[in-house]
Design goal:
eight-stranded mixed beta sheet; Mannose-Binding Protein A, Chain A
Length: 163
């Protein structure tokens, strides 16, 4: 096989991968894509919206993901974060103080709670990233209307092509 053909093939494959990672408007972090909502919804409405667009509320499993999301949110809200909150997928609706990811049912193995959280304030059973707490995790009333973060696994990595 001609070396030039191999080089063209490799370059084409790399370009295709780079351009296919996330849909327009979504932010990439490794093999994950995130959509930061402009509108506000209850936790259940936010979860349903994410599912409707072939994703789910964000699941945070490492310091690296937490740092990425915190950085993105700080960049989005440079004019102040004290009143900003974003729903993510965690909940203790099933058993009080046993936090699980709703999409999988798995217990949280990683947490980055803000100081004093979770505090079950206002019957808080749903997890959010709380601006006043440095966009660390907090619990709140699931019926509050907050922004939310949808997460999608890289479609090329997962083998799922969503169009």
């Amino acid at each position: 096989m001609d070396v030039r053909i191999v080089i063209v093939f490799i370059i084409s494959a790399l370009c295709a991968k780079r351009g296919f990672a996330c849909r327009q408007g979504w932010e990439s972090n490794g093999t994950l894509c995130y959509l930061f909502s402009h509108g506000k919804s209850t936790w259940a409405e936010a979860s349903a919206t994410c599912l409707a667009i072939h994703s789910h509320l964000a699941v945070i499993t490492s310091d690296m993901e937490q740092t990425f999301l915190t950085g993105e949110l700080n960049q989005l809200h440079q004019n102040g974060t004290s009143h900003v909150q974003y729903w993510i997928d965690g909940t203790d609706l099933e058993v009080e103080n046993v936090w699980r990811w709703a999409i999988t049912g798995d217990k949280l193995t990683y947490t980055a709670w803000a100081d004093g959280e979770p505090n079950n304030a206002q019957g808080g059973n749903c997890m959010n990233l709380w601006g006043r707490g440095g966009f660390l995790m907090a619990d709140d009333d699931c019926e509050l209307h907050l922004n939310y973060i949808c997460q999608e696994t890289d479609r090329e990595e997962s083998g799922n092509i969503i169009g």
